[in-house]
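Risk mitigation, structural track. In case the binding assays with S-adenosylmethionine fail to produce interpretable data, a predicted complex structure has been prepared as a fallback.
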Amino acid sequence: MEDLKEILQACGFSFKKQWGQNFLTDANLLRAIVADAGVDENTVALEIGAGAGALTRALSERAKRVVAYEIDRSLQPVLARTLAGCENAEVVFHDFAKENLARLESELGEYVVAANLPYYVTTPIVLRFVEEAKRCKGLTVMVQEEVAERFCAAAGTAEYGAVTAAIARRGACKITRRVPRAMFTPRPNVDSAVVRIDFTQGGFAVKSARAYRETVRCAFLSRRKTLENNLVNVFRIPREKAKEILSEAGVSEGARGETLSPVALGALSDLLAARGIVKE
Ligand code: SAM
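Fallback model:
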C-alpha cells in the first residue's frame, strides 16, 4: 500500500476533530489488534469508523468478511485506494448510530466488532452492543485509557460504575494492550487502550435485563449515599422494606452500591423484580 499520509494529502483530505478522526498507521499494532479480536478465516468482522482503512485492511487480511461503517463521505476516494484489492471488505457510508442493529445482524449472522472507536461516542456504542446485540460474539475496541479502566474495573474501586456493571453481565472484559498517543495521526491529547469484551465467556444470567439496568442505575445514582437510601429514594419504597430486601440479598447494612459486585447487583435485581418493585 502507498504511504497513508501521501494518500490523504493527494485526496485533499482534512481531519475532522468532531468525528474523532485519529488514525492508526503502524502495521504491527494493527495486526496485534486483529489478533486480540480473535479474528480468523471464519470470522465476520464489523468495524465502526473505517477512517483511512488501515484497520479495515488488516482485518480483511485475516477475516472471512469485513463490513466497515464510516460517517465521513469525504473518505471515499481515500478508501478506494487503501482498500484496493480487499475483495472481502465493504464500506458503508452511514452514521452507525442511525443503523438498525437487528436488521444488520440478520444480514451479518454471527460476528465480532473490531474498531478504533471515535472517542465522542465510545460508551453509547459499546452499551448498545451490550444491551441489544443478539449475534455479536464480542467487541475488541480501542478506547481512551481512562474509559478502558472503567470498562474493566473491579467493584469498590473509583473506576467501577454503571458501565462496568452493564458490561460484566454480558461477558468478560480485559485490557489487551496500552497504546500511547504517539501512535495516532493526528496525535490526540490522551493515551488509549484496547479492550476485549468477550460475550462467549464470563457474564451471568438475570431474570430481567431491564430490572438489572434499573437496579444498577439506582446503585450508582448517588455514590456517596448508602444503597438503602438510594433504594428508598429511587423506588419510593418504605425504609423497612428496603432493609428487608437488602438483608435477604445478603448486603451488609450501610453498604454503598459501588461495593456490590455485578453478580451481587444481579441477585438484588432479581429480588426487586420478583417483588414487583422494578418492572421486568
Ligand atoms: N479505523 C481507523 C483507524 O484505526 O485508523 C479510524 C479510526 S478513527 C478513531 C474513528 C473513525 O470513525 C473516523 O474515521 C470517523 O469519521 C468515524 N466515525 C465517527 N463517528 C461515526 C459514526 N457515528 N458512524 C460511523 N463512523 C463514524
